Amino acid sequence: MAQAERYGYTVARLRAMGHRLLDPGVFQRMLDAEDLQGALKVLNETCYASWLVEMKSEGAFDEAIEAELRYVYREIEQFVPDKALVTLCKMPYDFHNIKVLLKSSFLQKAGGNRRWDLLTQLGNYAPEFLIESLESEDYRLLPFGLRSAIPHCLAQWEQVHDILEIERQLDDLLFTQMTALAQTLDQKGAVEWVMGRIDAENIRNLLRLRRTQVETSKVAGFLHGGGIISVERLLALLGEPLESWGRLLAYTDLTGALSGLQEVSDFDTLIVEVEKALDEYVLRVVEDARFSSTAPENVLFYLWSKEMEAKNVRIILVGKASGADRDVLRGLLRHVNG
Questions:
Q1: CA angle 175–231–263, rounded 5-degree value
Q2: Domain of residue 15, residue span
Q3: What is the pTM for the complete model shown?
Q4: Residue 240 pLDDT exceeds 90
Q5: 337 in a domain, yes or no?
């Protein structure tokens, strides 16, 4: 069956689910609310209502946000022809859970407590399965190359106790696996979307490493290959002022994301602003799919839009709980369904 025939129904279903994407008016009303309770009241008028009623307290909104994301992922898995598109979006959560479990194991060995509360149900594999695999030391059924990666990580920890290096290796494996999966699909947009994810992560790492003044010779190890921007081109940015990064990458869609970069003393604020711009950059990679009624990339566009919506909801609710300024919160919001 031709791809157009396979995805015509899928795109129609996604557009029918458009009501589950919050419109800008909802975010404005949440921003205008006087406090957390007021913002939750606005959110309770949306598709999040069924999850909010299950909250044990006002501060437990993260569970409601995750529940909405889980619902959307489950729904789309039911009708998308290539479930690998959904797998791509969920794979980072699997690797997040593996990192949490490894850190918890290291912490427990040092006399600390496990942090299973940081696990998420959003991955392709249940946290319970991952816990059982690691605790039983039976890695045979672990997915995405983790079968061999986990023993290596454990051995490395025993030798050097370098959690950053372990995270770097797991991130490298994640992007390798995402790229390989995307390449199995006959969809150029899926591969480009993964490349955009790699670019975004590399820029984040580059900024963080620059802030901590890591030696240039060590920076390359924290950058992942396979993105639109080569590692060599990224390394060349280290010796340039931040405000010139956008110009030097003018041949990519990252120009807009980096246009506001400048040398500042408050690096934490800068990174937060860049995080927002990079999320929007990843969305733009597949944004043109909206104009096609048969493009498979509509799946990625919808799911990434939902992911950014979840970030927006969390930003506002956390901000309201802490009494943050409304204009500051508005400046942190990603583009969602606007």
A1: 110
A2: 3-332
A3: 0.92
A4: no
A5: no
